[in-house]
Write a structure and sequence with these properties.
It is a single chain. The chain is built from no helices and eleven strands. By secondary structure, the protein is mainly beta. It has one domain: Immunoglobulin-like (Sandwich), CATH 2.60.40. The chain has a five-stranded mixed sheet with strand order 5-11-10-7-8, with no helix packed on it. Strands 1, 2, 6 and 9 form a four-stranded mixed sheet that branches. A hairpin with a 2-residue loop joins strand 7 and strand 8. The protein is elongated, with a radius of gyration of 24 Å.
Length: 183
């Protein structure tokens, strides 16, 4: 994927954050029941030749919820950093809903170099260095909000390695003339 303006996209399709199928039970106003469970997040390792202008992670997330009281909205957040325990919020989406049961698919994209623990210089090769690998933690948080209160939340995360290699531009040409020489 070098041709996409030197940006390296890490794409993943997430098979489901389920808010509503199983898990912890929370009691909210008017005896509303909310169940929470989480799927898995899998981010593939990536490789890029040359120094990137940005290191974007793109995550597609399927959200499913179920509650006995109509929720106000669902918030899906994308965070990243050098580790899944030390991430910075990159972007989020709020999805308004008035349905007790529902699903929503969203794609979030963020530059991991906007994280407090990673910068663009982490993805640059040092003089004479042919390759550099950087571990990146990615976290998706989902919140279900009822009556302006977070009543259910879940989080999934994964670590991936981004490898930067030296961009090799090489060209060689030769020309000349020759003749036989006798002694």
């Amino acid at each position: 994927m070098q041709g996409i303006s030197r940006r390296r996209l890490i794409a993943v399709s997430l098979g489901g954050i389920g808010i509503g199928s199983a898990g912890a039970y929370h009691s909210v106003q008017e005896s509303a029941a909310v169940d929470v469970s989480a799927g898995e997040l899998e981010i593939a390792d990536a490789e890029h030749a040359g120094e990137p202008d940005a290191v974007n992670v793109e995550v597609t997330t399927d959200v499913e919820w179920s509650a006995s009281t109509d929720p106000d909205y669902v918030v899906v957040s994308l965070s990243a950093g050098a580790d899944t325990d030390d991430v910075t919020l990159l972007t989020s989406e709020t999805y308004d809903t008035d349905s007790t049961d529902g699903t929503h698919t969203t794609t979030l994209t963020g530059d991991v170099t906007d994280s407090a623990t990673l910068s663009l210089s982490d993805f640059e090769l040092l003089f004479g260095q042919e390759m550099r690998s950087v571990d990146v933690g990615v976290v998706i948080d989902v919140e279900l909000v009822i009556n302006d209160s977070v009543e259910a939340e879940t989080s999934i995360s994964d670590m991936a390695t981004v490898t930067i290699t030296e961009e090799m531009d090489a060209e060689i040409t030769a020309s000349g003339e020759g003749a036989f020489v006798f002694d």
